[in-house]
Structure formats: C-alpha cells, structure tokens
Amino acid sequence: MSRIRQHVRGSRLATAGIATTATLLAGLLSPAAYAADRPTRATVLGNAARVLADRAAALGLTSAQDTSVSDVVVDKDGVQHVRYDRTYHQLPVLGGDFVVHMAPDGTYRSIDRATRAAITLPSTTPKVSAPKAADVAVNALRAANPGDALKQVKAKPQLVVDALHGAPRLAWRTNATGLDSHGNPVARTVLTDARTGAQIDAWDTMETATGDGKSLYGGTIALETTLSGSTYQLKDPTRGDTYTGDAADKTDMCTGNGCSSRAPVTLFTDDDNHWGTGTAADRSTVAVDAQYGSDMTWDYYKDVHGRNGIGNDGKGSYNRVHYGNNYSNAYWADSCFCMTYGDGDGTNFGPMVGLDVAAHEMSHGVTSKTAGLLYSGESGGLNEATSDIFGTLVEFYAENPQDTGDYLIGEKIVRSGFPRDALRYMDKPSRDGNSADYWSSSVANLSVHYSSGVANHFAYLLAEGSGARTINGVTYNSPTYNGSTVTGIGRAKLGAIWYRALTVYMTSTTNYSGARAATLNAARDLYGAGSTEYNTVAAAWSAVNVN
What we know:
Layout: E1 3-6, E2 12-14, H1 22-26, H2 41-54, H3 56-59, E3 65-75, E4 80-88, E5 91-94, E6 98-102, E7 108-113, H4 130-143, E8 151-162, E9 169-179, E10 185-193, E11 199-204, E12 207-208, E13 213-214, E14 220-221, E15 226-228, E16 231-233, E17 235-236, E18 242-246, E19 266-267, E20 269-270, H5 283-305, E21 318-321, E22 330-333, E23 338-341, H6 355-369, H7 377-398, E24 408-409, E25 424-425, H8 448-451, H9 453-464, E26 467-471, E27 474-478, H10 491-505, H11 512-527, H12 532-543
Helix pairs in contact: 5-6, 6-7, 7-9, 7-10, 9-10, 9-12, 10-11, 11-12
C-alpha cells in the first residue's frame, strides 16, 4: 500500500487554538506532489485539527497543553492518520503521544493513545534540583556497569512530565554517559521523581544488538560513490549522501540529547574506486560492509514500504567504523543520525558490520521517527523485535548469495569462540538461553533483548508457520504455546502488517496486548477483517500466549 508521509516534529499547535485554519497549517509543511484524488497535507492537518477541537475533552487536552504533529500518513484510499506529541506547560509529556485516524472525507474514526491518564500537575516547579537528579543518574549508570571504573561521566537532566508510570508526575529525564575501562561509550537514561528524588525507571540509551567493494561478509559489492576532483569518496548521492567514515579507534561522548549533529570521522576515499580487499587488514573493507548495510536498508524501506530514508525525508545517515577498542557492539544514535560499529573483541565477535546488524540498528531510527517505542519493559521488547524483524527482512530482500536470508540474528559476526552460531533465533527464541518464547507477566522484567523473543517468535510463525522446515539450508522447528498449528502467510505480508502497525497504530507505550491489536488493525486495513491474513495474525499471537 503506497503512502505519503511528512515529518513536522517540532511544529507547535496550541491546544487553546486547535481549530486552526488549514491555510496556517499548510505553512508548517513544504509543498509536495499529491495525487489529484488524495487530500492535501494541509487538508489532512485541518481535518485533524477539527477532530482535536471536537474531542479535546475526551483526549484530556487543556489550555495548559500543546500538541505537535510528528507524523502524517495518507493511505492510498485516502484514509488519514496524524500522530501527535504532547507538552504540558511546555514540558515534554512522556507517554502523551496519540494518533488520530480519519476517513477519506476527514471524519473521525478512532484515536490510539499512549496513556489515558489526565495530564495535570499541582506544580511544575521541582523540589529536587537538577544536580541531584544528575547524581541519581550517574549512580544508576555506575550500578549498570559494576566493577568498571567509568571515566568522563556526564549527566544532563531535562524536566518532563512522566505519564508512563501510573499517575502523571513531574520528573527529571537524565541522559548519563561515560567511557568504560576500554574507552568505549556507555549510556543510560534515568527517570527521577522531581518531588522525592526516587528513581522511577532507567534504560539503555544506546539501542544495541550485542551483538564495486570487497566486503568482509557479503562478497564483492556494487557501490555508488562520489567523485571529488580526482578522488572518490565513499558517499552515495543516490541515497541521500549516506557516507562512511573511519573513527580511527576513538570514541566520543555524543550519545544523548543535545549532541552535535556530526561526530568526527574521516571520510573514506580511494583513487581508483575499487574498495577493500575482503579482509579486515584493509581498513576500508568493513567500510564497504557498513555502506552496503545502509544501501540495502534504504532500498528495502523505499522499495517495499515507500519510505524515503530512515526519517522519510530523503536525507541519508552516516556510518562510523573502527570505533573504540575491542568494541563488540553496534548502535544507532538519533542524536547524530548515524550508525556506529566496533571491530569486535577478536574472540567471540568479529567486526560488527553484518547486514542484519546494520539493518537492525538503522530500524531503531525508523521506530524513533514513528511509534517511538520506549526502550523499557514490554514496549522495549517490541522496539528490539521491530529491529530484529526488519533486520531479517532486509537480509532476505538483499538476496546476497554470500549472506543468504535466515531467521538467525547476527550469525555473520559471531566466531567459533562464541557458544552459539547466532545472537538470537526467531523460530524458537529460547535457543539463546535467555529469550522468551511466550508471553507471561514476567516478560516485562527481562532485558529488552530477551523480552523481544515473544514478538520475534510471533513474526516467524506469521511468516513461516509452526513445526519443522528448512529455509535456505537452515533448519528450524517452531513450537506453539497452545499446541496449535500455524500456517504462515509469507515474509512480504509480515513486513507489510508490522510496518503499518508500527507507523499507524503503535505508540510509545504499546505493550504486547497493544501490539496484537495494532497488527490486527493493520491486517484488517490491508487484507480485510476476517481474511486469512487477519485470522493468521490472531492465531500467531495466540500461539505465543498473547490473547
């Protein structure tokens, strides 16, 4: 299903004046071509503004609150979806986001909300100071890295309204960063009650997976490059100037809010436009892998979902390779809109530039630009699973004979010293020794990399079905919680359903029950209520005990 989307995060629409004219709303958006039979973006936003005016009380919107449009989706049939963030007395409301759904004629259909709690506080003046909140966050960062003498620890508090954890309250959201004993970055976001100083929640800031050029993992790759004078640059003008640079084994502290847009790297260049040797001894070899990962991820989202880059704005990201010292990680950071890759520890992990790893991490950027799933609890598991799902779909999409598609996560980066042949397994997630195959009330207490197993298992069942089978030479045997037999509907339909659920129905606080509802809504939109696809979504969720 083709879509037209526009990101306008940061544009402010005061609730007190919700019934703003379409002419004013049009000023928030740059012009673009629309099919003659589709509503213009100004019209869509005008429709949404009228819905907000009519339903302000039901949404709990008051004169103390502002809303900002963060995303607009117009379906091929003219159905409209507008995503909003919310502030209270100019403070960001965590869990205040919602999505308005409208019929082709602009009339109201429904609203998905991250929280239904009334957003009101007795005061927005904190009793706990920012330095005290910073101390709590620093202590939490140290506690998350026991036995490591962290260096250059910094913390930056921001006053927010927390509507994620029960009744809304004033809180400090603090991004704490530091360097471990190897000089590699560590980061944690901590929520602190601004009245009592108690820690409310904490989660990792860096969303990670622990996981013609000659690449390390993908064979010889065709590359689009830029000629500058007599030198070629590893910069792709056909994909938003996405480029790859050498971090020279150094690190930076730019992982949280307020970071500079570009962290220092040296752009890879070459004299003859033949890059790498296929071995890690040549520093440009892993740069080929990183650039290839960006290319395939860009192409998958554009060709399959009509998405123009991670931010859907045509702008490329960039890659930093050779980052840190024996750094066995890769991560996406919104703050620099970039991917960062370590070279691995040489024992368990090689360079972290596997195709599914790259697509996994870049998909965190897509999640951030759409549903914004909180990286904690069940929503954090769904965030991680979203990246595993799309990382897997990108690998199948690429059809690279040197890295054939499979439902193993990170299989290329693990070495013989690692106790398994992959980081995670989608057919039966518990094969990694930690991940959950099925939902239970304790899933929210797991690391997000393990609670993701429930959605990964659902995705495998939805695409391939239950029982034993062999795909591209890899053997799988996927069980079900209820002993049912699930017949898969294929990867293409899995991707279509999950992408629509993520971009149209999920919010920052969506949990597994909400994910079931979101994917059923998506299947209904795409294939019809009661269709085979709709019924299989329901069956696959029941098969992982999400009912």
